[in-house]
């Protein structure tokens, strides 16, 4: 049931969840004296929140075991769950929310702003407008600095019990951007010009990858890729001369991180929109929750492939296997003494191109009838996903 690791006692995931009474059932909470409500009422708050999250475009799949309720209880305090469960995916004025809650506007705004700071809700705190944040991408990723063993275990269990289905509806949550320089300049589509987008920004941050951090805490990480390479970029109101306040970094540092991720062989993924991209995840097929949709859970379109595909010149391939090692989707394999690409598995990331020492791999733009442009912006993405899920 328990194992020792570097002198510390740790529980295997399922045993850990059993000992905390979280597996297969909703965790009960102390009753009236602490929260002013009985446990049944408080549990109902979390059920309502789970249902509300599942009505958002991103989805929050329910499971037979109800492990997702335990996951929400780890993230939300009961009074936060009660408030968040009264929100929707539409931005609303604080007055309307306060009326629904039976609280003053001042108290409601104070609570919502605190929850916004933790990534549980979205909106404009100054304008007093709020909405419920999606679980992925949103609430979960905001737990980066609060991620611990228990949260890592709960998320993995949820993922394995059905949470991975969050990636099945279309359009996909993320899309692939090819490695910069792997596509001919005249072919690259406007929404794939990542370096140009970053160069147009004045504010940059580098975060740890939450997927690798979660796998580290699970003790299941299969790779040695660096942790600190999620890039965030945007235009602040006033450009600073340098990174005067942590955790901001200079543009040069951000671009050097981008270069490093391409050199070591990580896949660029961003929000599946043409406009409004402000971060890039640099992903591996063993840790990234979205890419694991393909590599582990058989969800073929869990990420939107780029509008290019890899081609390897069979007459010039030296059979060095570099492309095979760099492909996270197992789309490249050995055919005799040379490498060949399975187009059905290729996501157009371009890592085989940038890594090929003989320069015999290339990305080819798909035929016009095969090109799938991402939704224009987040609002268009949400609408399309709600339609495809049958919710509108």
What is the fold's blueprint, element by element?
Blueprint: E1 2-5, E2 8-11, H1 13-19, H2 32-35, H3 39-55, H4 67-75, H5 78-84, E3 92-93, H6 94-101, H7 105-117, E4 121-124, E5 129-132, H8 135-139, H9 149-161, E6 174-177, H10 194-199, E7 203-208, H11 210-218, E8 228-234, E9 248-249, H12 251-264, E10 267-271, E11 279-283, H13 289-295, E12 308-312, H14 322-326, E13 332-335, E14 338-341, H15 351-355, E15 361-365, H16 378-388
Antiparallel strand pairs: 1-2, 3-5, 4-5, 6-10, 7-8, 7-9, 8-11, 10-11, 12-15, 13-14
Helix pairs in contact: 1-9, 3-4, 3-5, 4-9, 6-7, 9-11
Q: Can you characterise this structure?
A:
The protein is of the alpha+beta class and 392 residues long. It folds into 2 domains: 2-161, no CATH class; 174-388, 2-Layer Sandwich (Alpha-Beta Plaits). The protein is 36% helix and 17% strand. The chain contains 16 helices and 15 strands. A 6-stranded antiparallel beta sheet has the order 6-10-11-8-7-9. A 3-stranded antiparallel beta sheet has the order 3-5-4. A two-stranded antiparallel sheet has the order 1-2. It is globular, with a radius of gyration of 22 Å.
């Amino acid at each position: 049931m328990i194992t020792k690791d570097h002198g510390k006692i740790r529980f295997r995931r399922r045993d850990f969840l059993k000992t905390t009474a979280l597996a297969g059932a909703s965790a009960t909470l102390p009753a009236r004296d602490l929260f002013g409500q009985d446990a049944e009422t408080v549990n109902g708050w979390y059920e309502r929140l789970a249902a509300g999250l599942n009505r958002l475009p991103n989805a929050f799949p329910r499971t037979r075991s109800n492990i997702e309720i335990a996951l929400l209880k780890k993230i939300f305090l009961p009074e936060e769950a009660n408030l968040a469960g009264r929100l929707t995916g539409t931005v609303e004025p604080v007055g309307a929310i306060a009326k629904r809650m039976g609280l003053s506007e001042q108290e409601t705004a104070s609570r919502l702003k605190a929850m916004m700071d933790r990534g549980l809700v979205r909106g404009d705190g100054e304008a007093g407008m709020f909405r419920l944040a999606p679980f992925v991408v949103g609430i979960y990723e905001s737990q980066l600095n609060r991620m611990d063993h228990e949260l890592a275990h709960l998320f993995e269990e949820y993922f394995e019990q059905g949470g991975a289905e969050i990636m099945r509806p279309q359009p996909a949550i993320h899309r692939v951007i090819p490695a910069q320089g792997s596509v001919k300049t005249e072919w690259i589509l406007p929404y794939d010009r990542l370096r140009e987008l970053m160069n147009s920004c004045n504010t940059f941050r580098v975060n740890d990858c939450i997927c690798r951090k979660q796998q580290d805490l699970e003790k299941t990480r299969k790779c040695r890729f660096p942790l600190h390479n999620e890039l965030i970029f945007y235009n602040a109101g006033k450009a600073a001369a340098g990174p005067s306040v942590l955790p901001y970094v200079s543009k040069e540092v951000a671009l050097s991180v981008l270069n490093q991720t391409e050199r070591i062989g990580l896949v660029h993924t961003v929000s599946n929109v043409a406009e409004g991209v402000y971060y890039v995840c640099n992903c591996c097929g063993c840790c990234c929750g979205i890419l694991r949709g393909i590599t582990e859970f058989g969800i073929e379109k869990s990420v939107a492939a780029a509008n290019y595909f890899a081609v390897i010149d069979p007459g010039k391939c030296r059979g060095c296997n570099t492309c095979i090692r760099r492909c996270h989707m197992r789309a490249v394999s050995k055919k005799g003494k040379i490498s060949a690409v399975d187009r059905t598995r290729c996501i157009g990331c371009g890592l085989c191109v940038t890594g090929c020492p003989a320069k015999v791999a290339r990305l080819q733009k798909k035929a016009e009838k095969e090109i799938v442009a991402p939704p224009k912006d987040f609002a268009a993405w949400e609408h399309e996903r709600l339609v495809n899920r049958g919710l509108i």
